[in-house]
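This section describes the prediction task in plain terms. A model, or a person checking by hand, is given the sequence of a single protein chain and must write out its three-dimensional structure as a string of tokens. No templates, partner chains or ligands are provided. The sample shown here is typical of the held-out split.
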Amino acid sequence: MLLHGLWDTPRVFRRLEAELLGRCPELELFAPHLPHRLGAVPLRRLAATLAPLITERFGPAEPLDLLGFSMGGLVGRLWLQDHGGAERCRRFLCLGSPQRGTLAAQAVPRALLAGIADMKLGSPLLRHLDGGTARLRGLDCSSFYCPTELTVFPGWRAVLPVGERRALPVCTHRQLIGHPRALAAVADWVLGRQLAP
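The expected answer:
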């Protein structure tokens, strides 16, 4: 399952999908649309919208692997921790996801853009997620990030509190989902292959 980020649609995954299906044509991919209204929709509401979409597509118990790009990593984590997703998920990859907040969101007023405000450093949402981290401990969790990006700033904040952390050799947030080196690393993770050093 692939969850897109802010100002994106599932089309952001087209290169990754091509990479994955080129290697493994029988792989089943699901990239639902998260209607975030340019960041106005609170992330909890997006996770509540996601939960029935997953059940409709896969039923209530089929095991899943989850990849969340950018804001999609936070929505995915909410689904895992608050909607029972951790009970059926095997692996969780956050790709450039502001799990520890981003300075880029600090000046955004919650009244106008609640979803972006959820990504502020120390926001109530992030404190809530950190309080439920124990629910992630049974999963194989990884965080891939770009140290030099300006969307999740500073880049090292794009990591989960558990699991592997890996800086990818790219320069920008968008390259995390489009650069061939990043796509290769992500595809290796999705397909369960040993990551290159």
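For orientation: Residues 33 and 107 are 27 Å apart (CA to CA).
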